[in-house]
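Narrative of accomplishments. A recurring question from our advisory board has been how the design workflow behaves on a single, concrete structure rather than in aggregate. To address it, we present the structure tokens for one chain from the evaluation set, followed by the sequence designed for it. No filtering or post-editing was applied between the two.
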């Protein structure tokens, strides 16, 4: 069954059960500065999950275009995607567990014709916050799942919340047994050996998690479900990866035909990043150096680097774009409507990048050769720094290149040079990096780190409720929106400023680590906990002062920031204040 048929069958099924079909929201959230992209079907529906009336009624179904880029570095393996489609059905205070589970089971077994014995489910085991979900368990038994294929897990597996505050509740997840042998006698759906693949999640939102970690019952009980279309397509077609389905095959094959040097990982990366870039562009995204624009830039630049590896020219790539649009336009008519714009945005960005890239990669390869000839296993920091300064290679890209070549980088030497460079440019007039990533300059990076310091300082002075609601950085200033019910007093602002400047004076090191969302949470990192799939996130730590989930980049030491000064404090919207601040280089 093709993806589009699965989507249509899903929407038709829920329509036949009294749901209204609503359109997908854009991948760029319309009124939500707190997240970069739409990452789940429930996200645009939060106000309705909290009780507001939805114009289409209290039973809804849709497909939602989603972007999740925390795993961007994993794309190229056999399962990660930065763009995916989530099919969902919602009950806004209408039906609850038994009906939801009954419909899920019927859809899987009667509409998609999945043999019942291939399905296992998990339900919430209960803890001090909420009881064991016997209602869901009974509903599964009633639907036809035998007791031995019902598993019980705690919050890590069977609880869903978007962020660390908001509507939430126990969930029940459905798993498809691929038929692969069990990895051990304890193998079960929570194991990631590949035998069981999660196919659908039903969240029963009956609680609200307060900022202080306590739970209260919601007035309205909701159902929120999410079924990943690419994964379901792959399973129903018996394919090993989503790249082997019709969603990607034409793109993958065209790339193979054009490539002078084939590499399946690079073809997957190009296919994936092209699809997500096109979706972002369709919804109005443009490459830039901050937030959403930076992610689009990173996607296009990364795909371009892999095109280079495949030895496919940018001119030939236009064919790949056209073939991909032709292949997907029935599912996404907006691709056809935006064809010219998609070509233009991608090609402009590629031309900016390609020159830099070619020169930089040549430089890198020479360095690898030199190191290998000398019997060394490490690339000197001077080379890494030159790539950074002269060719505008973000450090993350050099790290990736090195990983591919199985060679290490001298990061501490790089850090030292980087710092010296910052000192020099503080003295000189030129503040921008030379090379391709010129606009991602040290000023905006410094403001980014200052934003983390400000966020933490606000929480110290005002309280933990003062969480980030928005952030915007230019080369002139930072702007930070945060939750706070009233005007921040002059004394409080002075205190915040003082705390930030104190951390700058302490010249704290800024370090970055990758970990799962759960680990980040456990270590007390601030940030948006968008989902719970054990995804890897980057956590930036500033000395002993702050820990925050963030994509970066950041300065290496706070001493590089200069003096921090708050210029303005004003209302942004109800319950949200806004601070504008500058860094003064002394
Ligand atoms: N919100 C849940 C998820 O993202 C179900 O839609 O999995």
């Amino acid at each position: 069954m093709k993806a589009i048929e699965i989507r249509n069958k899903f929407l038709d099924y829920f329509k036949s059960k009294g749901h209204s079909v609503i359109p997908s929201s854009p991948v760029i959230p319309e009124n939500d500065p707190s997240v970069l992209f739409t990452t789940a079907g429930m996200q645009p529906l939060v106000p309705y999950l909290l009780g507001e009336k939805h114009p289409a009624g209290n039973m809804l179904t849709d497909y939602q275009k989603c972007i999740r880029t925390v795993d961007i570095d994993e794309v190229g393996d056999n399962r990660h995607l930065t763009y995916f489609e989530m099919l969902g059905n919602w009950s806004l205070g209408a039906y609850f567990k038994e009906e939801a589970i009954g419909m899920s089971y019927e859809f899987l077994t009667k509409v998609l014709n999945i043999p019942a014995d291939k399905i296992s489910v998990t339900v919430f085991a209960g803890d001090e916050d909420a009881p064991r979900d016997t209602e869901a368990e009974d509903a599964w038994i009633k639907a036809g799942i035998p007791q031995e294929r019902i598993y019980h897990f705690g919050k890590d597996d069977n609880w869903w919340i978007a962020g660390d505050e908001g509507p939430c509740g126990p969930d029940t997840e459905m798993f498809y047994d691929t038929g692969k042998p069990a990895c051990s006698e304890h193998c079960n759906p929570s194991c990631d050996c590949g035998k069981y693949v999660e196919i659908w999640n039903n969240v029963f939102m009956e609680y609200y998690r307060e900022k202080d970690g306590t739970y209260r019952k919601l007035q309205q009980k909701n159902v929120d479900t999410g079924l990943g279309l690419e994964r379901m397509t792959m399973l129903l077609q018996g394919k090993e990866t989503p790249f082997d389905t019709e969603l990607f095959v034409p793109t993958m094959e065209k790339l193979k035909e054009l490539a002078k040097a084939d590499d399946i990982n690079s073809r997957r990366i190009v296919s994936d990043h092209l699809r997500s870039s096109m979706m972002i562009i369709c919804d109005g995204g443009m490459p830039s150096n901050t937030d959403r624009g930076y992610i689009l830039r990173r996607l296009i630049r990364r795909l371009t680097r892999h095109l280079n590896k495949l030895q496919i020219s940018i001119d030939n790539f236009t064919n790949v774009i056209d073939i991909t649009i032709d292949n997907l336009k029935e599912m996404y008519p907006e691709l056809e409507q935006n064809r010219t714009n998609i070509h233009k945005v991608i090609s402009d960005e590629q031309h900016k990048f390609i020159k830099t890239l070619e020169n930089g990669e040549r430089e890198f390869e020479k360095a690898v050769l030199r190191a290998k000839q000398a019997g060394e296993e490490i690339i000197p920091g001077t080379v890494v720094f030159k790539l950074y300064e002269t060719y505008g290679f973000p450090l993350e890209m050099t790290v990736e290149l090195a990983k591919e070549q199985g060679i290490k980088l001298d990061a501490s030497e790089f850090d030292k040079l980087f710092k010296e460079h910052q000192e020099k440019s503080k003295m000189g007039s030129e503040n921008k990096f030379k090379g391709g990533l010129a606009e991602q300059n040290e000023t905006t990076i410094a403001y980014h780190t200052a934003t983390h310091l400000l966020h933490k300082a606000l929480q110290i002075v005002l309280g933990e409720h003062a969480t980030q609601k928005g952030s915007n950085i230019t080369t002139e200033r930072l702007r930070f929106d945060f939750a706070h019910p009233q005007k921040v007093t002059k004394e409080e602002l002075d205190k915040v400023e003082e705390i930030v400047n104190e951390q700058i004076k302490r010249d704290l090191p800024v370090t970055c680590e990758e970990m799962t969302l759960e680990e980040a949470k456990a270590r007390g990192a601030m940030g948006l906990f968008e989902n719970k799939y054990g995804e890897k996130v980057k956590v930036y730590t500033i000395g002993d002062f702050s820990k925050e989930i963030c994509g970066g980049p950041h300065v290496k030491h706070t001493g590089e920031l200069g003096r921090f000064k708050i210029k303005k404090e004003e209302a942004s919207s109800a319950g949200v204040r806004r601070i504008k601040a500058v860094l003064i280089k002394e």
